[in-house]
Inverse folding.
């Protein structure tokens, strides 16, 4: 089946530093990738949607200068948390799907990245 | 805005029992997806439904895409301990993907 690889699986960083999370589709071309944030015992909250070669579309309340998303190829998207603060500590999950318009495929998820900012 | 309800919020059942959960939305969707998430991991696709009225099975799991395209249910038969986790319904439109609030399933051996 379709595989999405997310790296790193966990990261601890100091306040003020930046962290980059990678999301790769290993066996399909991901025309669209999504980035989610999940708090304990809650559902996934969509942060942004990115289409290959285009600027990401951010959900309301998500700071685009804080969470930089790059989707430079059909197999790779990155999320960079800039100037991280303790309140950015969370579980970040990416997902990817192929196709577009009326022929989109199902979402396939990475295994998530646990970010802890000290 | 769009509303998506998933029920029940949580379930505690005995091993061997059947489970049923459902989602309803205020909008029409083209696809309904069901995922399971284990703690500390990403969601895993269980069943994908692409046509209104479609009934699909995957082992002990059965899901249906409602005729109105505004709802879907997931049934799990003869539950086992490894069914424990959070189940999400994820209706998908052309440009939008929405996560249900989730159903937390606990199976008592």
């Amino acid at each position: 089946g379709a595989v999405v690889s997310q790296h790193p699986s966990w990261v601890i960083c100091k306040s003020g530093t930046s962290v980059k999370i990678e999301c790769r589709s290993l066996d399909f071309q991901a025309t669209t990738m999504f980035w989610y944030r999940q708090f304990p015992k809650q559902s996934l909250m969509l942060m942004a949607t990115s289409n290959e070669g285009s600027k990401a579309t951010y959900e309301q309340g998500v700071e685009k200068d804080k969470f930089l998303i790059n989707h430079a190829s059909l197999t790779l998207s990155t999320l960079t948390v800039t100037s991280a603060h303790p309140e950015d500590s969370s579980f970040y999950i990416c997902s990817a799907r192929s196709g577009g318009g009326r022929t989109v495929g199902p979402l396939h998820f990475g295994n998530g990245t646990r970010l802890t900012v000290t | 805005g769009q509303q998506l309800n998933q029920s029940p919020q949580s379930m505690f059942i005995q091993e061997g029992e059947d489970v049923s959960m459902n989602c309803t939305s205020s909008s029409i969707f083209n696809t309904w997806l069901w995922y399971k998430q284990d703690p500390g991991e990403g969601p895993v696709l269980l069943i994908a439904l692409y046509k209104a009225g479609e009934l699909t099975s995957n082992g002990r799991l059965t899901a249906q895409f409602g005729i109105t395209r505004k709802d879907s249910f997931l049934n799990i038969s003869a539950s086992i301990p490894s069914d424990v986790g959070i189940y999400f319904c994820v209706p998908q439109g052309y440009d939008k993907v929405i996560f249900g609030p989730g159903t937390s399933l606990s199976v008592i051996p």
Notes: The radius of gyration of chain A is 14 Å. DSSP finds no helices and eleven strands in chain A. The longest strand of chain A covers residues 44-51. Chain A has a mean pLDDT of 91.
